[in-house]
Amino acid sequence: MIINKFQGKTKDEAIEIAKKEMGPNVVIMNVKEIPAKGLSGMLKLKPGVFEVTAAVEDGQNQSVEKAFSEPKPLPKSGFDAVVDEKIELPKGPALVPPPLGEDWLGAIGEVSKIVQNTEDKPKIPPIKNPNREEAMPKKPDEPSVKPENTLIKAKTMVSAMDKYSASHVTPQVPPEAVEEKPQGKNAGYLRMIYNTLLENEVDEKYVNMILDEVGKTLKDGSSIDYLISNIYQKMVLLLGKPAVIGNIENAPKVVFFIGPTGVGKTTTLSKIAAKYALEGKKVALLTADTYRIAAFEQLKNYASIMNLPIGIVYSSADINQAIEEQSDADLILVDTAGFSHKNESQKNDLKAMMDALDEGYNKEVYLVLSSTTKYKDLLEIADSYREISEYKLIFTKLDETESYGNILNLKLYTGSDISYTAIGQNVPDDIEVLDTQKIVKHLLGGK
Description:
- 36% of the residues lie in helices and 14% in strands.
- It contains 15 helices and eleven strands.
- It has an eight-stranded mixed β-sheet with strand order 6-5-7-4-8-9-10-11, with helices on both faces. Strands 1-3-2 form a three-stranded antiparallel β-sheet.
- Strand 9, helix 14 and strand 10 form a beta-alpha-beta unit.
- Helix 8 packs across helix 15.
- The two termini are 14 Å apart.
């Protein structure tokens, strides 16, 4: 986002200068009158100047025709108001996305109320399906409508009409729709935040949910600081308080680390083992990974460095015996084999081992995920491992990505608590309890 200030003798002149310098799609964030300096200004003998604060996003000069030139396919997933592919949005005072689950006319109506701060029903241009001649069906008992000077986002249109058509649609937006409107200043702010969250790979349906909740409490003319503060607090609450390994006093505490191959389970386990060992806790390690040749050797090296006992679990029948041998420990960390979530055989083996654990033991399970994994794969992984056990979440490799959206996505999708995040390979330094404020700040475009 680029923000600049411009001055003119009148309000209109200052706005015109801003548009000339930053393009016709500039968002006017604030207008104020600055009196002339000195005694003449105090006595109003000399006119002052008007200063406008204007903002525009990078690359916002593309035309509406170009933005709508190629229709995008509708999402194939089961989520409402989600577009999997990134769509270039037309620039201008676009609308905040509507609430989920409404028909497309009703959804656009709710959005228009936020932007225009009025109870008038919105008017929209006719929308035609390119695969058939007739226009899209109108909502029963609705009067005919004509387009007004309100830009309707391509993503909002496609998402809201998902229930009506499985084919591509190309909204016909009149050229005048991109003109700046003086009212509805909140719309420009919300649009910038909306795009920022999408760029950080937050699922569109969760962006819709967050902005819809915040939009209900806003009044037109709210400052950008007030708006961001409300969204920030909402997202911090959604991420929730991190849930770390606790209640070690009821020893021994048995903690399983599960997850796909290559996400860093063994390294993460070693970091947590070192942390508690340095705090004076008695920690023991077990490995149930008998698939990888070097798995035991890797964990054995960590155990040797930290002077911790280590054992092997060969099958589900061995789990209770292996834990019994380490019963004097406060904390027993169990490293499991990584495997594809599509491998039913290995998944069943892991479930059998965890189900065989004596119910008298104090048990916790942590699903370790890489923040670099594709969102669609993360959803499948989360569903697959849910069949094995309930779990808390650990995200690794945050140092290998700039997009933290999947952390919030998986929290909201699974409902599971997030515990730790890992930012490198160093043991025990590169792990920390989830810093919700830092994650939310990053998602909103901060560093």
